[in-house]
């Protein structure tokens, strides 16, 4: 499998320090196969790989990851980005009703989606009306009525006995009905054919013309693989659409269609359908899709763990320095920055055992204060950070001026740093940290 192949590439490259062109090429080759196996269209794969290589070549070398892992990480980030990054919400009309039109091949899942979408919208407090504009298949209207009933919403359809009816006319009248009965959203189900077909496109375009939809959702079966590109292009040119819905993700399709459609049409994937029941429906999650396309959830997890382990290593190195009393202001700054990434300092300290008694002190450790400390340390030269003892009066004056604080604050910081270092060393001893002097002295 791909995971295995990649794991061996990762192992071959382990221990090398930087991203060489050969590393990038080797990893890119595996990723390329993964994308093709996931049914991503070839031209899309080519563009994608080219972008990734470009980015990988300029990438900063990470201490946590080996080169292949870094390339995989970049690939994953690019994929998530292309698949949508932020998911777009339905755009609603300023004056109701909002009109959502569904388009796509027969069997792609439009009618089922109409029910799912209706249920989803009812859950958000909307009052949708379903509209049956598929008058081609004998059972299409009944099918929509059934899903409508399950979703608890009415369906607008041509009166029985009136002949086949004209879908464009039904569409037009449905908007009047929605206004009359105060439905704030109209979901228009349309007819599809098994393949791309001029008449179908013309009908869909005509319906679009009369209902002036706020959204046209192109519904595409994730299983159609390579055909997704030509189908999407045909619907883009024939009808036009504003968003994509991917269906049948409960099947074993790797989801390459998602990347192809997204890349070729530039339209966002908004929802994912993953089953026949009305509940089998979700907003689209780019990260989940990326790991599905790459088919290497395991590798991505490994990468995450490697990064966490690296943070851990850094923390341990700092802890060892604490124990031996070698902590410098530079370490202090680094730790401060690392800690601040995790959230407000008071929350963090509050989680420590025994912090209850320190409440008052904690309240003073506000983030603004930390900003000032950070500014002061930044104002020092590396030599001063390394050995604060050399910070004499004239240096203090320079630092205070450079970081916009009073000289007193610089003094405070330096004094407190020594106190803290001593205290931490004692604590390290008590907790048995490496290098700790176990409370002696
Ligand atoms: P339409 O022709 O585009 O209206 O497609 P339908 O809504 O009639 O769906 C065609 C078939 O696919 C039906 O049997 C549905 O039950 C099934 N279907 C639709 N969406 C999904 C899905 O997400 N997963 C699965 N497994 N089946 C689906
Ligand atoms: Mg249908």
Key attributes of the depicted protein:
disordered C terminus, alpha/beta, 8-stranded mixed sheet, 441 residues, 434 Repressor (Amino-terminal Domain), single chain, binds guanosine-5'-diphosphate
Structure commentary:
The protein is an alpha/beta fold and 441 residues long. It has 3 domains: 2-85 and 296-300, Four Helix Bundle (Hemerythrin (Met), subunit A), CATH 1.20.120; 98-284, P-loop containing nucleotide triphosphate hydrolases (Rossmann fold, 3-Layer(aba) Sandwich), CATH 3.40.50.300; 325-431, Signal recognition particle, SRP54 subunit, M-domain (434 Repressor (Amino-terminal Domain)), CATH 1.10.260.30. 57% of the residues lie in helices and 9% in strands. The chain contains 19 helices and 8 strands. It has helices at 2-13, 21-37, 42-57, 67-82, 110-123, 140-151, 167-180, 198-211, 227-238, 256-265, 286-294, 297-324, 329-340, 345-350, 359-364, 367-378, 382-386, 393-403, 407-431, and strands at residues 98-103, 128-133, 155-156, 185-190, 215-221, 243-247, 269-273, 281-283. A hairpin with a 7-residue loop joins strand 7 (269-273) and strand 8 (281-283). Helix 18 (393-403) packs across helix 19. The longest helix has 28 residues, at 297-324. The chain is elongated, with a radius of gyration of 30 Å. Mean pLDDT is 82; it is low at 350-359 and 435-441.
